[in-house]
Amino acid sequence: QLGTSAITHGTQQDLILNPGVYSVDPNEDSFDASKWKYSYYCRVYDLYNFPNIGGVLLTIENSQNDLNNPSCLINRTGIGSELRFENSTVSPNSSLTILSGSLQQNQTYQFMVILENKINSSIQVKGYLLVRIVDFTPPLIVLGCVISSLCSPNGEFQLVNPTTQLSLFTLCIGTCTNIENIYWNIYQSSSVNSTQWTLFNQIHSYENIWFFGINTSKITITNDLFINNSQINLWKFEVVYTFLSTTSTSSLNFIRNQSPYNGSCSIFPLNGTITTVFTISCSNWIDVNGIKDYSLYIWTNDISKQILIAFSSISSFQVRFPAGINETSFINVIVHIRNLENCITQVNLTSVYVRIDSESIDDLINDLQNSSNLITNNSIIQLLSSQNTNVVGQILISISQQLNMMNNQYLNEALSNGIPLATISV
């Protein structure tokens, strides 16, 4: 849930990197630190690359020198005086402490940790953190996504879905009394190869429109920011805590998640009744993350009141629609194509004409009222017994809609014949 990209840290504070505690394994209920090997690397950010010899990276404790890319540590006196590995028995090196005074103040460092699975060395993951060293002792501010599934890690960044809103929260760790102010800065960039960020200076212009909570510990950003700035690939959200005698910052960097593209979807036939089988066919959708599923929504006269009718993991599937409720009986149809990182492309299909099937509804009511032995032969009962959640849901929506329409019709007839509404019960 926590995905902090950058923090402020005091030169006289120990810096603890603990991937053994804070990592997440999506394939397990909890992260088992003992199943992994840990390697730590550091570079002076924006000045040098990670130290290496012949392209082979040097871990932070390695005593060898790369003349072009110097070590982060000031004295290079080795394990114990500047570095200390924790949890050496159960999960060796799963936590690293960089002792106070080992890093130069007024400098920014980038740390990288590589986790390698002990059983399968081809399974590796990387984590990154930027640390700005200052000459005071600020509280630690950590930053994360309220809905962690919407912030999947992608190298030095988190993926952001431009079709959904983004909600971030912060936690203050340490002496966090006397907070005078909290405010957020937003930066943008167009190239992952550049460390230059440009301040997005319209945050106050869109306060309570695109941005909610810009002076609180939590902020919500609507998807309008990403939709109206589709040319921007990188975003940085920075929170600044101001205390009586110090400030502390933290930030989280995002890269735009490309939604599925270049495909199409169609529907056939274009008219029918509530028992007609309509086929939705989607093809040629491209996504580097892979397509996860397809969801089908309908609406009639108010697009804000969409109803989920079906979902499918395959690109061609069948549905049944309820009847249209206006004079034209047209249903508007929308398909959501979602990739494995939950980014969505929305496609509006051709509207379909769906008329009421009064005969089927009347047959169902008669069979239910008469407790007919032939009720299992009723076409609607057979569909409800299919154990297909999509089909059952679609039929129930159609039946409830039809019964509500019949109920309203009977009420209107009763009122037109002078029967008081208060005497009518259903």
Percent of sequence in beta strands? 35-45%
* CATH topology title of the largest domain: Immunoglobulin-like
DSSP helix fraction: 10-25%
Helix count?
5
Biggest pleated sheet: 10 strands, mixed
Q: How many β-strand stretches? A: 28
Uncertain regions spanning at least 5 consecutive residues: none
CATH homologous superfamily of the largest domain - what is it? Immunoglobulins
Could you say which overall geometry the principal axes of the C-alpha atoms support? Answer: elongated
Mean pLDDT: 86
CATH architecture of the largest domain: Sandwich
CATH class of the largest domain: Mainly Beta
Textual characterization of the structure:
The structure is a single chain. The protein has 426 residues and is mainly beta. Helices cover 13% and strands 38% of the residues. It contains 5 helices and 28 strands. It has helices at residues 19-22, 224-227, 358-370, 379-384, 389-416; strands at residues 6-10, 15-17, 36-44, 52-53, 56-57, 83-86, 95-98, 107-117, 124-134, 140-145, 153-154, 157-160, 166-173, 179-189, 198-199, 211-212, 218-221, 234-243, 247-256, 264-268, 271-273, 278-283, 291-299, 307-312, 316-319, 330-339, 344-348, 352-355. Strands 1, 3, 8, 9, 11, 12, 14, 15, 18 and 19 form a 10-stranded mixed beta sheet that branches. Strands 21, 23, 24, 26, 27 and 28 form a 6-stranded mixed beta sheet that branches. A hairpin with an 8-residue loop joins strand 14 (179-189) and strand 15 (198-199). The two termini are 49 Å apart. The mean pLDDT is 86.
